[in-house]
Amino acid sequence: MPQPQPRSPRHRAVVLGGGIGGLAAAAALHRSGRQVTVLERAPSLKPVGAALSLSPNALRALDVLGVGDRIRDLAAWQGDGGLRAPSGRWISRTDAAAAAERFGGPLVLLHRATLIDTLAALLPPEAVRTDAPARLTDPGDAHRPARVSTPDGELEADLVVAADGIHSATRRTLFPGHPGPVYSGFTTWRLVISVPGVAFASHETWGAGRIWGTHPLKDGRVYAYAAAMTSPGGHAADERAELLRRFGHWHDPIPAVLAAARPEDVLRHDVHHFAEPLPAFHRGRVALLGDAAHPMPPTLGQGGNQAIEDAVVLAFPHARLRSSGRTPIADDLAAYTAARLPRATAVTRQAVRVARVNMMGNRAGAAVRNAVIAAVSRARPGLLLRGFDGIADWRPEQPPYAAVRQP
What is the CATH number of the domain that holds 31? Predict the structure, then answer.
């Protein structure tokens, strides 16, 4: 296993944000030999969210960090399931073994907190500061460090990684002319709860302008999510009652999940994405990462996966891109933008296209959509998997440090 190089204050990196992308970047930079400080404005690293899926591309990136197999052990390996209509009729079935063979590994599901804890454990305890709001005051350049302002004073850094989310203040500072994220046309609900006595196969259900998904977690709980076309900024006094109104008449196990939920179990968030990509993912000595760089709809389940890819590519740039006369940090960040901007933009655009299909609001159109998918699935059972070609089969340039075990 390659050993980290000696650390030095001269190689200091400051990461703004302690979410999945920020901690993955910090862990990767720490492994590459940099001294890392993570600044998280929240009082703890406890994530706001439910569960997330990790596809083989992100798991291979986690292999580079040495925790891919641990995550595979902690997560639920998604089995056979498929796509259903609100009546419960199966529109198409998925074959987990075929998907794993096609993309070189499984799709897994775990709680966000599990991934956060695993990534944070890769860092020295003193590297993470919570309750620490921070602001970029100078992006730096080839001749001077970047500067970050905190309540305890100013920090200088060779590299600043902005993983400060979809409404990134750092992004607005670096690219003030960019229009920012746009509303994707729908809102989402998520919950993780126990539903005793209910057995089901993983599924996603597509209606007219609405979807629902139900998946088992390894600890026995259920992860459920829903989405619906609606105006932005809306909230109900009781989001569980809102879900009952919209989905309570759909097939089992959806009514049982909603019956077991409490209003406080339900999280609701509007969905946004970039209609116009950024001109670059870096400026000066600052790199943007994850939702700060490329927010996307969740329709491909790739938001967190792409952030983990970002982290590994940023920390381990390819040597052939470091041959110019510029400073190493300039080479590294140019390589990062060159590698990540086209890929993240393509994944975002594909997620937007998928959202137009699965969130189709016209009832007649939705019925035709479901009929076409059913017919295609019968004629070519593996055809729908092709939608993840070029996404789930991505591999980092570094060889994995961990072996891929089977369940």
Answer: 3.50.50.60
